[in-house]
Write a structure and sequence with these properties.
binds D-ribose; 5 strands; alpha/beta; five-stranded parallel β-sheet
Length: about 150
């Protein structure tokens, strides 16, 4: 199950991406928002991050205008590794190196075609493990020490 969420700036992009991913056979749980009326992105970022943190959803996708606000919010949650991706390279690297469990994109930065491409690459990407796992363990230690 993939959790998906957006604020008003990315509502349309979320709806379009949802349609595309559903066509591909993915199961999605939509955490809002539900229109392009102005809302506060931390509410939606936190809802998706909580769903991933709890294991209710294996992965998450968040969109806002720049992607910055959503990534700041999602990365407040221990165990969440939210990656703001702008292109194929960052999408692939965020899976291979960071085992990112939330993909974040900026709907005012990217065209829908790019959003689809990045989501495709990210959803198919595999974590490389090895030295990258050691670094994720270090992140987990930092979280424990807070
Ligand atoms: C909303 O205007 C905008 O601030 C938001 O979508 C996002 O870009 C925040 O980081």
């Amino acid at each position: 199950m993939i959790a998906i969420g957006a604020d008003h700036a990315a509502y349309t992009a979320k709806e379009q991406l949802k349609e595309y991913l559903l066509e591909q056979g993915y199961q999605l749980r939509d955490y809002g928002c539900d229109s392009d009326e102005s809302v506060h992105y931390p509410l939606y970022g936190a809802a998706v991050a909580r769903a991933v943190q709890s294991g209710e959803c294996e992965r998450g996708i968040l969109l806002c205008g720049t992607g910055i606000g959503m990534s700041v919010v999602a990365n407040k949650f221990d165990g969440v590794r939210a990656a703001l991706c702008h292109d194929a390279f960052t999408a692939a690297a965020s899976r291979e190196h960071n085992d990112a469990n939330i993909l974040v994109m900026g709907a005012r930065v990217l065209e829908q075609r790019q959003i689809r491409e990045i989501a495709d690459i990210w959803l198919h990407g595999q974590f490389a493990g090895g030295r990258h796992q050691l670094r994720l363990n270090m992140i987990a230690e930092i979280e424990k020490g807070r």
